[in-house]
Task: inverse folding
């Protein structure tokens, strides 16, 4: 097994596909999508509340931990749809102890870190990823994917809530795309 610390975009999509037919698949898909798309730490993800969402404006308030910068991110259409689908599906679950918490267990309690780790690990196993999958890999996948798309390092820093740029440059330093075209005008 590889000890890689991130997932590729293809692997993230494979995780989402892998949970599709599970009994908790709608919730688990939403978990994976939001954790990846917003570079959420597991504690940040599990603390998300419906009051953090502005569905009509397509925004999500990200409360960063570890002294990070909190920000407001846009919600993409697939995220909006996933959240709404989860919200509708959870109406058939046991009522939530705290109805404002987005991610709950089937018993209605706030989803625990252990449960979230298991969801991501099992999704990785189902998807056949070549590495031991865990939730923080989705945060790293976000950073690497943004770098791969040519996103400015400072913008990635802000998006992930890093106070220190040293925590962000790991994503751009290993990005091969930044070297494309270096020799094209060379004679």
Result:
């Amino acid at each position: 097994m590889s000890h890689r610390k991130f997932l590729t975009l293809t692997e993230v999509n494979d995780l989402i596909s892998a949970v599709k037919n599970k009994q908790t698949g709608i919730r688990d898909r939403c978990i994976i999508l939001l954790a990846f798309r917003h570079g959420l730490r597991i504690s940040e993800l599990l603390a998300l509340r419906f009051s953090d969402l502005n569905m009509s404006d397509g925004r999500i308030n990200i409360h960063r931990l570890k002294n990070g910068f909190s920000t407001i991110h846009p919600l993409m259409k697939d995220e909006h749809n996933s959240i709404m689908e989860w919200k509708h599906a959870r109406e058939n679950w046991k009522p939530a102890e705290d109805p404002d918490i987005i991610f709950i267990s089937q018993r209605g309690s706030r989803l625990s870190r252990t449960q979230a780790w298991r969801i991501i690990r099992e999704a990785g196993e189902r998807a056949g990823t070549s590495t031991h999958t865990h939730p923080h890999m989705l945060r790293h996948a976000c950073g690497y994917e943004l770098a791969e798309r040519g996103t400015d390092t400072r913008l990635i820093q802000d998006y992930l809530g890093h106070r220190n740029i040293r925590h962000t440059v790991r994503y751009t330093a290993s990005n091969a795309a930044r070297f494309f075209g270096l020799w094209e005008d060379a004679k």
Notes: The chain has a mean pLDDT of 91. The helical segments are 9-19, 25-37, 42-46, 77-90, 113-127, 136-148, 153-160, 169-173. DSSP finds eight helices and three strands in the chain.
